[in-house]
Design a protein that fits this description.
Layout (H helix, E strand, L loop, with lengths): L1 H49 L2 H5 L1 H9 L7 H13 L8 H10 L1
Keywords: ATP-binding, Helicase, Hydrolase, Nucleotide-binding, Signal
InterPro entries: CHP02448 (IPR012661)
Pfam families: DUF2388 (PF09498)
Length: 106
């Protein structure tokens, strides 16, 4: 009788381990897929802005804005911020300071 219980316990543990492993794999696949989609969207947005003349022209104004902690707002920076928010709606929630830093980074 104890052999039967031991065999049943081993079978249940094996099934439970397989269920947990497949659940873990499905969860990580979902998370990785979501991160990849977000990364691709952000990459597409920044690469299209990287080559934009309006954004490139605002680099000096962005540097002044960041250095003065928002006190100096140049016309080219204002134009670039409006352009970025129009071209990349997913970046519309970013603050002016975040976008100015992004302009300096690209």
């Amino acid at each position: 009788m104890s052999r039967l219980r031991l065999l049943c316990t081993a079978a249940v543990l094996t099934l439970a381990a397989n269920a947990n492993a497949s659940s873990f794999i499905m969860t990580t696949d979902s998370i990785v897929g979501a991160l990849k989609a977000t990364s691709d969207a952000t990459s597409d947005a920044t690469s299209s802005l990287r080559d934009n003349k309006v954004v490139q022209a605002a680099r000096d104004d962005a540097a002044s804005f960041v250095a003065s902690e928002g006190a100096i707002r140049g016309v080219k920076l204002e134009s670039a911020l409006a352009h970025i928010r129009q071209q990349a709606p997913q970046l519309a929630i970013a603050t002016d300071a975040q976008l100015a830093q992004a302009i300096l980074a690209i």
